[in-house]
Every structure is written in C-alpha cells, then in structure tokens.
Amino acid sequence: MIRTTLLAASFAAVLATAAFASDLTLGTVLGTTPEAVSAALTEAGYTVQKHEREHGRIEVKATREGKRYEIKVDATSGAVTAIELDD
Fold first, then answer.
1. Region for 45 from its dihedrals, namely left if φ exceeds 0, alpha if ψ lies in -120 to 50, beta otherwise
2. Is the pLDDT at 87 greater than 80, yes or no?
3. Do residues 10 and 55 touch, judged by C-beta distance below 8 A?
4. Any alpha helices (H) in 1-87, and if so which ranges?
5. Is 19 left (phi over 0), alpha (psi -120 to 50) or beta?
6. 38 and which of 43, 48, 71, 79 could share a cystine (Cβ 3.0–4.6 Å)?
7. What Pfam families does the annotation carry (predicted)?
8. d(CA 22, CA 15)
9. What's the topology of domain 2-86?
10. Which pTM does this prediction carry?
C-alpha cells in the first residue's frame, strides 16, 4: 500500500513539474547567464536558436511547437521581462 501511494505521489510530482516548466510567463526566473537561460528554455521544450547579452538583458531566439519566440530576460534577476511571438 505504501509503495503504491509513494509511486502515485512521485508520478503526480513529475507531471506537475513538467507542466510548470513548459508554461513560460512574465516573471518566470530562468537564470542570469545566457547559458543558464538557454538550458532552462531547453528543459521547458524550447529549441534555442541564438542568445546574446545586451543592455543589461539576455535576449533569446527560440522555437517551440513550430512557433518562433524572442524572449527577453533581466540579466540581474533572471526574470523573463518579455515574450514576443515572431511571425
């Protein structure tokens, strides 16, 4: 009984983590270096095309599910400040 409960709890935690990771919103903290931001986005299901640090922020161009995004992150706090869907 304990094993079944523990397995169910573990499975629920994995699903909750995966759902949270894929929902990128303003304020989500990704990291304070281009490499950390790229790694976090990759873990969330994005394919990072390019990243650069410029004017106190990290700008990332990435794709996910066939859509192209430009994501801007504050380099000091690591928080997402803008998410733009490119046409």
1. left
2. no
3. no
4. 2-22, 34-43
5. alpha
6. 48
7. PepSY_2
8. 11
9. Nuclear Transport Factor 2; Chain: A, (3.10.450)
10. 0.73
